[in-house]
Each structure stands twice: as structure tokens, then as C-alpha cells.
Design a protein that fits this description.
The complex is a heterodimer. Chain A has two domains: about 250 residues, Alpha/Beta hydrolase fold, catalytic domain (Rossmann fold), CATH 3.40.50.1820; about 90 residues, no CATH class. In chain A, about 25% of the residues lie in helices and about 25% in strands. Chain A contains eleven helices and 15 strands. Chain A has an eight-stranded mixed sheet with strand order 1-2-4-3-7-8-11-12, with helices on both faces. Chain A has a four-stranded mixed sheet with strand order 5-6-10-9. In chain A, helix 2 packs parallel to helix 3 and helix 4 packs across helix 5. The C terminus of chain A is likely disordered. Helices cover about 60% and strands about 0% of the residues of chain B. Chain B has a single domain, classed as Non-ribosomal Peptide Synthetase Peptidyl Carrier Protein, Chain A (Orthogonal Bundle). In chain B, helix 1 crosses helix 3. Chain B is globular. The longest helix of chain B has 22 residues. The two termini of chain B are about 20 Å apart. The model of chain B has no long low-confidence stretch (mean pLDDT about 85). Chain B is mainly alpha-helical. The chains are: A alpha/beta, B mainly alpha. Chains A and B meet through helix 1 of A and helix 2 of B.
Chain lengths: ~400, ~90
């Protein structure tokens, strides 16, 4: 088994016109066999599974056990939570000064005395800590490394597809008919989006608790994305944002088009995907009926739609009674399912089916929204993947059922 | 002292250092569930640390299939065996 590291150029943000400053690192664990049985992208959610040791171990495990090239990609905004150890750089934790003053106000209102000279925010935080067990909430911005921001999946999916092209072109030999993704939560969501943009390239997608659409709390900058406890201080966090919700006249407005391209259960777009797919991908999904982040109803609809479109899709819906403490540790979002166990459970249910990558097929896809047309073009030439977003004329009488619902 | 006993001592020493538990509380039958903080992330850290300290590499396919400290010791012994044989030849 051998470990490889590549770097490729990241996809520019074609929606917002922002160039990428940071290259995209690819880490691949390659089994000893002359030709691996396939390749799997391991795509963690936003939480602890990004831990460097855990990720490295997971790649080694999957590569050795299944004779697959196991790959992690430092795709756009991949690292957006503080972690004990990271493979791709640290998240900068920027405290919001106004909220520290708000917390000071609550400290005084609670009857506590100011017992020290307060010259800096750090002085205030130290005094708040000393008032434990009283709890104080402070807002924080999570700044991903390399001036990245929360794009919510599109750039991440494109980066992974470019990584696939780079790996196909590399000296690593693997069965290109058996390319898979495994991911939980946001990772599973990115996996579905990769399939949306490259319908022929994937033999299987395995997800746990993957949402089907943008989680508004993660992009509206209203500090509801994550809560991080630091003793009696509770940081309510939001990843750095580039979208805005106030001015529809600006390209940075997160309107219906932005939402629809990020929707992996929007039937109109998925019909386009199904038509372009010469081989239908196999989806293995598991979700909880208690999931408060990712709608169980929408997940049901996604599974039904995928089946109706001819994909080989299965969805295991679990509830409190299915918690076994080993595979399923809770009925909440993510279900506490470790990625190694997720892969162990579902990979054996996926059969190898003949297929070639979208790069080789030079697949071209157009996804229309009310205002913009998104075009994804795979090419065998030098620029292998092009994504554009151009204004379009609305078709008379066209409705966007998905948004209406 | 047999090689297994020696390996057991070295493994327990690393576990105690990584997880902040008492070495004397650990036995071959101790599982991750018996030790506070031995979750999947700590397990990964522990495996990497053991590989560093013992200068071995565990087989990839076994990394998540270690149920107790005894399993870790057996696997570490297997990984150490060729090194020990080589050491004898050289000596």
C-alpha cells in the first residue's frame, strides 16, 4: 500500500466571479494490487471525521480491505470547523466583538460585579469564564483556510470531479467503471451533487443523513450553523459567507437559481441527469426519521424520485428503536454512524457495472433555473471541466414546483 | 518476560499516555467502551501513536476491527515478529 499526494488547481467560483487562491490537495491511499478494483472518494461531513488521524486510518482501511484507491480531497471549504488535527490547514476562529460586549451586559445584569480592569476582549472573556457555571453565548465566525467561504457544495463537487480526472490521468491504475463516493451529512450531500454534475462517472453513492438541498442556517450568517462549547462559554458559529439575502439585483444574492442548482432532489434537474446517464448509479442511503437538519420527508422523495428515474436506489429509514450502540449510535442527524461502518454495510450491496467517466463521454449538462442557466461541460481536452452560469429568459408559463412546495 | 508481555506493557503505556488513564487499570480484555474518551477519533490517534512508538505498521484491513487491548497486542506482536527475527540474524 502506498500514500500519494497531488495538488490541482481549484475551480474558480463561476457564480460569484471569485478566483481561487488555494490549490486543491488530493490524498490517495493505493492498494498493492497492480490494478485496484475501483476508487472511492471519502467525503466527511463538517465535523470530527475530518480529523487527520481518523481520515488517514480510514483511507488505509478501505484501501486494504476492499482493494480500492481511497481518496480524500481538500475541496472548497472542506475545512470549516476547528479540529484537533487537520490534514489541510486550520480554521481561524474569529470572535465577534459586539457579542462579547452583549455577554458582558448579561454578566452585569445577572448581578455579577466587574472585579478587574477590562482593556481587551480577552479580559472580558476571562472574567466571564470565572463566573462559571453561569453560561454566556458569544458569536464566532469560522474562517476556513485560504480565504475560503461557505459555497455550499457546488465548488466542492467540481473540485472532486477535477480530482477524479487527475487521478484517471495519473500513474495510479484502477477500474474506472467502479468509482464511488461515501459520505455523511454534508459529505453525502456533496456526493449526490458530484453525481448530479457527472451522471456517468459514478457506480455507487453511499450516504448517511445527506441533505438534499441547501441548509439555510449554514449560509445565512445568522450564527445558527454550529455550537461549540468552551467551558461556560458557548460559541454560536457561522462559516464566513459570500452570499447575501438582501439585494436580488446582485449576483451574490442567494436566490432560487442558487438554491435549485444545489438541490439534489429537484425533479426537473434530476430528469436531465437521468437522461444523460448511460449507466444508472447505485444509491445506498440511510437516514433518521428524527433528523432535524435534513428533512426525512424530502429524503423519502429523493429516494422515490431516483427509483422512478431508473436509478438503483435504496433508503433505510431508521428510528429510535434501531439505535444499537454499534452501527447506529443515535437517531439524530448523522446517527453516529462511523464512515468505515457505513462503507462496510453498503459497499457489498453495490455491484460493478460497466461505465466510463463523463470526461471520456464529454458529457454536457444544462440546468435551468428561473433566472440563470447553469452549464457543466466535461471535456477530454486541456480544460476538462467547465462550469458556467448565465442569465436566461424565463420560459413563459414555466413553474418551479420544487420551490413552490 | 515473553515478547507478548513486553508488547502488552508497551501498548498499555501508549494507551495510558494517549487517553490519560491509569496503566494498571488496563488488561488484555479491556475494550474501548471500558475507557473514558476512547472513541473513534481517539482510536485513530492511538493507532498512529502505537505505530510511531513501536515502529510498526498495522495491516490496513484490521485497523477498525480491534475489539480489545489483547487484539492490539496480538497484532502488534505479529507486526514486530519479522523485526525481531531480523534483529536476531544481525546479532
Amino acid at each position: 500500500m502506498s500514500s500519494h499526494r497531488f495538488e490541482i488547481t481549484g475551480q474558480s467560483d463561476f457564480e460569484l466571479g471569485i478566483e481561487r487562491k488555494r490549490s486543491v490537495a488530493i490524498l490517495a491511499e493505493v492498494p498493492d494490487a497492480d490494478v485496484a478494483d475501483g476508487l472511492v472518494f471519502i467525503i466527511p461531513g463538517m465535523g470530527g471525521e475530518k480529523d487527520a488521524d481518523y481520515s488517514a486510518m480510514l483511507r488505509r482501511y478501505i484501501s486494504a480491505k476492499y482493494n480500492l484507491v481511497a481518496v480524500s480531497v481538500d475541496a472548497h471549504c472542506n475545512t470549516c470547523r476547528p479540529a484537533r488535527s487537520t490534514e489541510f490547514g486550520e480554521v481561524d476562529f474569529e470572535l465577534d466583538g459586539e457579542s462579547i460586549l452583549d455577554a458582558l451586559g448579561r454578566y452585569i445584569a445577572s448581578g455579577e460585579k466587574i472585579d478587574r480592569r477590562l482593556e481587551t476582549h480577552a479580559d472580558i472573556l476571562q472574567m466571564l469564564r470565572a463566573a462559571a457555571p453561569k453560561q454566556f453565548s458569544v458569536r464566532a465566525i469560522l474562517n476556513p483556510p485560504g480565504d475560503q467561504y461557505q459555497n455550499f457544495g457546488v465548488l466542492s463537487a467540481l473540485d472532486h470531479l477535477c480530482a477524479l480526472n487527475a487521478l484517471v490521468d495519473s500513474e495510479i491504475s484502477f477500474d474506472v467503471a467502479n468509482v464511488l463516493c461515501v459520505g455523511s451529512s454534508h459529505g453525502g450531500y456533496v456526493a449526490h451533487m458530484m453525481h448530479k454534475f457527472a451522471p456517468n462517472s459514478f457506480n455507487g453513492i453511499i450516504d448517511a443523513s445527506a441533505y438534499c438541498e441547501t441548509v439555510a442556517a449554514f449560509i445565512d450568517g445568522k450564527w445558527k450553523e454550529a455550537h461549540i462549547n468552551d467551558g461556560n462559554l458557548i460559541y454560536t458559529c457561522s462559516t464566513r459567507q459570500a452570499w447575501q439575502f438582501a439585494n436580488p439585483g446582485l449576483a451574490s444574492f442567494f436566490g432560487p437559481d442558487r438554491a435549485l442548482i444545489r438541490d439534489t432532489a429537484y425533479d426537473t434537474h434530476m430528469q436531465t441527469v437521468a437522461k444523460a446517464a448511460s449507466r444508472k448509479c447505485q444509491f445506498r442511503m440511510i437516514h433518521s426519521t428524527n433528523d432535524a437538519v435534513s428533512s426525512p420527508d424530502l429524503k423519502h422523495r429523493q429516494a422515490e424520485m431516483l427509483c422512478a428515474l431508473g436509478f438503483d436506489a435504496s433508503l433505510d429509514m431508521i428510528n429510535e428503536g434501531d439505535v444499537d450502540g454499534k452501527f447506529i449510535k443515535s437517531a439524530d442527524h448523522g446517527m453516529g454512524i462511523a464512515l468505515n461502518l457505513l462503507f462496510d454495510r453498503y459497499y457489498p450491496t453495490i455491484e460493478r457495472r460497466e461505465g466510463v467517466t463523463d470526461q471520456k463521454l464529454e458529457t454536457a449538462l444544462t440546468f435551468d433555473g428561473p433566472k440563470y442557466s447553469y452549464r457543466i461541460s466535461h471535456r477530454a481536452s486541456e480544460i476538462q471541466l467547465a462550469a458556467t452560469c448565465e442569465a436566461r429568459s424565463p420560459i413563459r408559463g414555466e413553474t418551479v414546483d420544487r420551490l413552490a412546495s | 518476560m515473553t515478547s507478548t508481555e513486553e508488547t502488552f506493557g508497551r501498548v498499555c503505556s501508549v494507551i495510558a499516555a494517549e487517553l490519560g488513564c491509569a496503566e494498571c487499570d488496563l488488561s488484555a480484555a479491556t475494550t474501548a467502551e471500558d475507557v473514558d474518551g476512547w472513541d473513534s477519533l481517539a482510536h485513530a490517534r492511538l493507532i498512529m501513536s502505537l505505530e510511531d512508538h513501536l515502529n510498526i505498521r498495522f495491516p490496513g484491513e484490521k485497523l477498525f476491527e480491534l475489539d480489545c487491548i489483547g487484539d492490539l497486542v496480538s497484532l502488534a506482536d505479529e507486526a514486530l515478529a519479522p523485526k525481531k527475527e531480523n534483529t536476531r540474524v544481525v546479532a
